[in-house]
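Treating backbone geometry as a discrete language has practical consequences that deserve illustration. Part of our work consisted of pairing the sequence of a single chain with a tokenised description of its backbone. What the numbers capture is local backbone geometry rather than side-chain detail. For completeness, the protein is quoted in full, as a sequence line and a line of structure tokens:
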Amino acid sequence: MVGRTLIRGGLVITASDEIHADVLIEDGRIAALAATGTPAAEAFTAERIIDATGKYVIPGGVDAHTHMELPFGGTFASDTFETGTRAAAWGGTTTIVDFAVQSVGHSLREGLDAWHAKAEGNCAVDYGFHMIVSDVNQETLKEMDLLVEEGVTSFKQFMAYPGVFYSDDGQILRAMQRSAENGGLIMMHAENGIAIDVLVEQALARGETDPRYHGEVRKALLEAEATHRAIKLAQVAGAPLYVVHVSAMEAVAELARARDEGLPVFGETCPQYLFLSTDNLAEPDFEGSKYVCSTPLRPKEHQAKLWQGLRTNDLQVVSTDHCPFCFVGQKELGRGDFSKIPNGLPGVENRMDLLHQAVVDGHITRRRWIEIACATPARMFGMYPKKGTITPGADADVVIYDPHAEQVVSAETHHMNVDYSAYEGKRLTGRVETVLSRGVPVITEREYTGHAGHGVYTPRSTCQYLN
């Protein structure tokens, strides 16, 4: 174990500042920062020196929405905690928050224990858990209090997927009331699953079986309706609300209206909604199945409203909803019936680079890039300033980022355990060069130097945007 590490000469970018500074790391934490060339910086000494001249020095990314090894639709997400966190590291993400799943008829604790068993000793970077609540009852509600106390402070519910994860309005209200008391944050998959199922049945009866119909039946209005309903239920419960994977402009409008009223309502979107569209779902020869996820991809005109929402802070976080299924043998389960295509796509490795491209393209500023990808998710889920920033005392989760390097995204070169890329052939400017996780190099000048088991479980405090 090397003692101190010094990162010299880079442009340090956080959500609030940009400064040419030298960063001193000791015992896995940020020990000090000083403006490059000043006497304070010149006085720094270290055993390992990283030259970041001409590069950005940014906090490791925090991806607050991943699904490693998730059972879904008769199969499993193809990334394990080992392969998925390694790919995250390659993409400059040093913390993930994954979802433990409560099965109907079982306790929250059983689900959480099962996910701990999957992850422990296997992760290349640090991780935490949210809890999917599929079965709201008196015991579950009591367990929510206990989980908050031990650092699982967010609970996901689904207004979609009847018969699997679905909660009705009464169950949602009860869970929201509980979170209002215990400080937890309800995360909502907001789509009207009951109505969607009717539209699925009708589409299949008409012989509309191709992947593009997945997007057509999961209508933007049903996302907006569910978002509105979730906001009103949270308002009745006096609880905060975080809406996951917002894809439709009509849903953004619901969030903006609630925030204008001063409600503690937050929204997340994902790179796929910012960069992909229904054009991808309509690709011929069943290629469209690669892009089946829920909420679904929308027509291109929705993208401008999502970018606007990120600029106006009506959307606060960009996570990936990384849930990969291979095209061969997994996505193909839905040939002849789009409703049987496993929902989800890969992205944990691409998020930081895609959002840097958004900086290059003028959609967001450099500091906003760090805010939506690092600082805000860390604050939202009770990990800041340990994660999400570069400041004395923070974990030394640091990325040396080359803003000028050019790359072409491809399944041939990515590290996710999946046989296609959702962004195949896309040219990007900017690339991760070196990644430190708690001061330990896990990517060193584009080589993987990490190992399974380095990543540790990170208990979380409650949402830092609430009183």
Notes: The mean pLDDT is 97. The longest strand covers residues 398-408.
